[in-house]
TrEMBL record, chains A, B:
Key word Protein transport present: no
One of the GO BP terms on file: response to stress
Name listed for the protein in its UniProt record: MarR family transcriptional regulator
Native source organism of the sequence: Aliirhizobium smilacinae
Keyword Metal-binding found: no
Gene Ontology MF terms in the entry: DNA binding; DNA-binding transcription factor activity
Length: 149, 149
DNA sequence: GACATATAGTTCGCTACCGAACATATTTGG
DNA sequence: CCAAATATGTTCGGTAGCGAACTATATGTC
């Protein structure tokens, strides 16, 4: 991205890209992207879920979610139905096809983690996570507006 | 991406997204994206450069670079001319407009780093960078093929 | 010199991500 | 009860990223 002249920042990006590329390589035969996988993961484990809940779950914005969902609907893996209680909301659920697919899927995350962080002790991993979590929070708190008061 | 159930992996992604979002917020008034910024950075500091060199510099693939370059050419910030020595290669250089723009640009990376990692001591930052660098290398080495022997 | 191979870029089609603007539906305030 | 505000989703247009397939140019090799 540019951040060649720093270290942690640049490597966070590169790590992210490498893992995303790998997840997508694993998922390609199944016609799924990384974010699509996570939507299926949620639906398989938690059952039907309002679409809006995925915003916080995936930490993405509405247009991104809208795209991901419509890809899954187009492929026939997910069903999107209006909530009778609130006509604004949509409930997402696995279709039969989607559930069938899920059964055959590998867990790409487990694979990535075992390759990427094998042999790193958990204290170190916790430290890394903490530094990055704090960095993320600072960026997100700063970004929204420049104003506080 | 999914990696909600791990720690360092998930936060590397979230940090990356937060910083990219912020860089793009800073650059939006100038009609530039994060990767586009880095191309200008290189050209401003190193002068005209063969397009192919940016593949290693930015660690991106050819189609991505092709897109970024054509966006910059379209906007009139960069000039793409064939290398007389080798008709396959293209040389990239700043236009007058591009150089003019560059002078007025803030350095988004410095801003990000100061916000994100302010107060973190450099030993810790080095450790984070090392863990992520190793993770990236393992992923990249594993990915290309599954075969060794 | 001719043919095979390697290199540089582009194009196509896709995922993933965002902000802005929009349509609807619900909730709140007067 | 009705107008204003809020919440949910979609659409549009953009950046950033990839693999596969393609063109054109160079470089071997026989």
């Amino acid at each position: 991205m540019s951040d060649n002249h720093n270290s942690a920042g640049a490597w966070a990006k590169k790590y992210h890209l490498a893992s995303r590329t790998m997840i997508e390589r694993i998922l390609r035969p199944y016609d799924l992207g990384s974010t699509q996988w996570y939507v299926l993961y949620q639906l398989a484990h938690q059952g039907p879920t309002p679409q809006r809940d995925f915003l916080a779950l995936l930490q993405i914005e509405k247009p991104t979610l809208s795209d991901v969902v419509s890809a899954l609907v187009r492929k026939g893996f997910v069903e999107q139905t209006p909530d009778p209680k609130d006509q604004r909301q949509r409930i997402l659920a696995l279709t039969e096809t989607g559930r069938g697919l899920w059964e055959t899927l590998p867990d790409p995350i487990a694979l990535i983690l075992s390759i990427a962080f094998d042999g790193v002790d958990s204290d170190t991993l916790d430290l890394v996570a903490t530094v990055l979590r704090n960095a993320t929070e600072r960026l997100n708190n700063y970004a929204p507006e420049g104003n506080e008061t």
